[in-house]
Amino acid sequence: MRVAIVGGGVSGSYLANLLSERHEVTVFEQQPDDRFFTVCAWGTSVHELRKLAGRIGLNFDDYIFFEGRRMIVDLWDSEMEIPLKGLCTFDKRRFVTDMHRSIEVVYGHKVVREPPSGYDLIVDATGFHRALLPRLERDYYIPTLEYKVFYDNPPYEDFYIKPIPGLSGYLWYFPLGDGVAHVGAGDYYKKHIGVLNSFMEGGRGEVAMRIGRPVRIAPPHLCRPMSLGPVYGVGESIGTVYPVLGEGIIPGMQCAAILAEHINEEKLEDYERTVLRKFRVYFDAFNFVKKKIKKEFSWFRDWPVVLKPFIHMKINEDRYGMHIRLRDWIRLISKI
């Protein structure tokens, strides 16, 4: 098949590598070659990325910046420590550009609403923008802003987060090593800029880069249609971002693997059903987050909504890179 993938980020590039041995694949990336950059906090799980990267011949350990031992959770009047088991920051830009080396990438080519012609299959890997798929009737997203900061004296030696009341967002501090960190915040009610600037007050570090972008938290169940004619969505364009954390690197690559499998087995008609089944827990997690954001949460009525995300993360500790403990989960929810 001749396959066009619109969007050269993590999901689109990973999909292209999975397909390139059996199909003729072209990736269209709107950023120019010399200014290509990837956004987000660049935090992920060593264990899961080793498996995913290994499928396309990359050694994920070559890209790791920093592997944490604990995460400090600032609950305003107290702190909580979560033991980590593989949560890391990594060189996401180099990881993606290394994926580009084995595929055909057309840089500086922006595709909006009109898909490339002459292809048997077109993939919308444009993330939040859904450049080729229909607009969602009701979208849910978190505006974010992130700084790359250089420190003479870093305020924290490990991962640090501070939830915003109501679980509408959080501030993060992700070390990159050698006194460098990504410091960012996101909030459904757009309070993140004030929260981030408050953290940066007092001359804390030198800001070298600022990046703002929205992160979709609407799960796949709310991101239909996932396809339109020859166009199929993958990654954040169809909602594969874990709503509790706003994390989309691993699920985006998992979604790409599902699409690659269905293309190779000529079972595209089953793609949407498989995605919905794989990410069913994201719908449950979204309902939990939405109830907290909208202040509609009740312990008496909604305890099943609390347990489903916890059980999912507990079963998949290696995938999330942290030890998941019920007492931490309950304490966190009670505080926010």
How is the secondary structure organized here?
Elements: E1 2-6, H1 10-19, E2 24-29, E3 43-45, H2 46-54, E4 64-67, E5 70-74, E6 79-83, E7 87-90, H3 92-100, E8 104-107, E9 121-124, E10 141-150, E11 159-164, E12 169-177, E13 180-187, H4 192-200, E14 206-216, E15 227-228, E16 231-233, H5 249-264, H6 271-278, H7 280-293, H8 299-315, H9 317-320, H10 326-335
Parallel strand pairs: 1-2, 1-9, 2-8, 5-11, 9-16
Antiparallel strand pairs: 3-7, 4-7, 5-6, 10-13, 10-14, 11-12, 12-13, 15-16
Structure, explained:
There is one protein chain. It is globular, with a radius of gyration of 20 Å. Helix 1 runs parallel beside helix 5 (249-264) and helix 7 (280-293) crosses helix 8 (299-315). By secondary structure, it is of the alpha/beta class. A hairpin with a 2-residue loop joins strand 15 and strand 16. The chain starts with a strand and ends with a helix. The model has no long low-confidence stretch (mean pLDDT 95). It has one domain (2-335): FAD/NAD(P)-binding domain. Strands 6-5-11-12-13-10-14 form a seven-stranded mixed beta sheet, covered by helices on one side. The chain is 32% helix and 26% strand. The chain contains ten helices and 16 strands.
